[in-house]
Design brief:
3-stranded mixed β-sheet, 17 helices, globular
């Protein structure tokens, strides 16, 4: 069953059909190989926490999942690991993404959002993906990691080449990977020679420690793990958040009454972000998994080594978990949504992504009492890996009448 075209064009209607008729079905996966797609909330949530479903590609059977080809220096990351390596590396980096650290970042994030809106001016039209939703998270994550400003645009270009490959440029993804490898090699060398107050300098110091608490505890990074971790934090920290912010703005443009409500009740924004993430999350699918033994999901036996794709988007629109799921309801208790995952592989940067989205919406809604779609309906990225917009044209005005 090849559902890729349907899923790109009408994802939620396809998910509705599959949940009812084939909640675990064979499809052509994102890399062109066969995969099992799981769509019901209870099944997806249980599978996300099932230790028999491995992220380690070595469990993929011959002729199965190929995926994105990364060099070893970028491939030794958390999205390819199970415990105990996953536990060890996640513990090292989780210190940078605690709720307390996120709270400390709120003021800088708001200052960045305000600066981007200053650049837009008091009124006009703009593409809010290019002018706001994309630059905000790349600035935040690059500041956190210590990436020089003159390299940030490069990184955005590379991630776009990986997430939404251009059929007319078949070698673009490989070129982007090699460019990133060179970039991170150079960046790590710079952090060693000129350490600063940033996350990459801290991780490099842990990697290079000859002794000390981290080394005694066995919390050491190999050189490939260090490079791969830097790659993953920058890639995921940008990619998920730009979709989360852009999708949230798009949804509020389509629901002007809810947009107006959030202006009147900014205290409702944290809960609104949860419902917006449930309604139109950034990732249609969780990272692929491979059963280490034959497993049964909704009565279907999935053989060991085959590829399993868990649909976060389908689970978040499952009426068995969220009544009237196609309705945006800011009063809904959206806790338990799976937009940012579940289990031990739950999104490491989730507190930061939530904070960035909340602050981005607050700054935008406060600045522009008039905010409406401009031009034709925006186009979605042709990707099952990311649910996001190619552009988001809007008309905005600081006045109280349409511009």
């Amino acid at each position: 069953m090849d559902l890729q075209a349907e899923l790109l064009e009408h994802p939620y209607s396809v998910y509705d059909r599959l949940r009812d008729t084939a909640p675990v079905c064979r499809i052509t996966g994102t890399d062109g190989t066969p995969a099992w797609l799981v769509t019901r909330y209870d099944d997806v949530r249980a599978a996300l926490a099932d230790r028999r479903l491995s992220l380690d590609k070595s469990h993929s059977k011959d002729g199965g999942y190929r995926g994105l080809s990364l060099p070893p220096a970028l491939d030794a990351n958390l999205l390819n690991m199970d415990p105990p390596d996953h536990t060890r590396i996640r513990r090292l980096v989780s210190r940078a993404f605690t709720p307390r650290r996120t709270e400390q970042l709120r003021a800088p994030i708001r200052a960045t959002a305000d600066r981007l809106l200053d650049d837009l001016g008091p009124a006009g039209t703009a593409d809010l993906v290019a002018a706001y939703a994309a630059p905000l998270p790349i600035i935040v994550i690059c500041d956190l990691l210590g990436v020089p400003e003159d390299r940030r645009l490069d990184f955005r270009t590379w991630t776009d080449a990986l997430i939404t490959p251009d059929p007319s440029r078949p070698h673009a993804a490989k070129e982007a990977v090699m460019a990133m490898l060179g970039f991170f090699t150079e960046l790590m060398a710079h952090k060693r020679s000129r350490p600063a107050d940033d996350l990459l300098s801290d991780l490099t110091a842990v990697r290079d420690a000859a002794d000390g608490e981290d080394a005694r505890d066995g919390d050491r990074l190999s050189e490939d793990e260090l490079m791969s971790l830097a790659f993953l934090i920058l890639f995921a920290g940008y990619e998920n958040t730009v979709q989360l912010i852009g999708n949230a703005i798009h949804t509020l443009l389509e629901h002007p009454e809810e947009q107006a409500r959030l202006r009147r009740e900014p205290s409702a924004l944290p809960a609104a972000v949860e419902e917006l993430a449930r309604y139109e999350g950034p990732a249609p699918l969780a990272i692929r998994r491979f059963p280490t033994e034959d497993i049964t999901i909704s009565g279907v036996t999935v053989p060991a080594g085959e590829t399993v794709l868990l649909s976060l988007s389908a689970a978040n629109r499952d009426p068995a978990r969220f009544p009237r799921p196609d309705l945006l309801d800011l009063d809904r208790d959206a806790s338990g949504h799976l937009a940012l995952g579940h289990g031990i592989h739950y999104c490491l940067g989730a507190p930061l992504a939530r904070a960035e989205t909340e602050i981005a919406l607050a700054a935008l809604l406060e600045r522009y009492p008039v905010l409406e779609a401009a031009g034709p309906a925006p186009r979605w990225r042709p990707s099952l890996r990311a649910r996001g917009l190619l552009e988001l044209p809007v008309r905005y005005d600081t006045g109280h009448s349409p511009h």
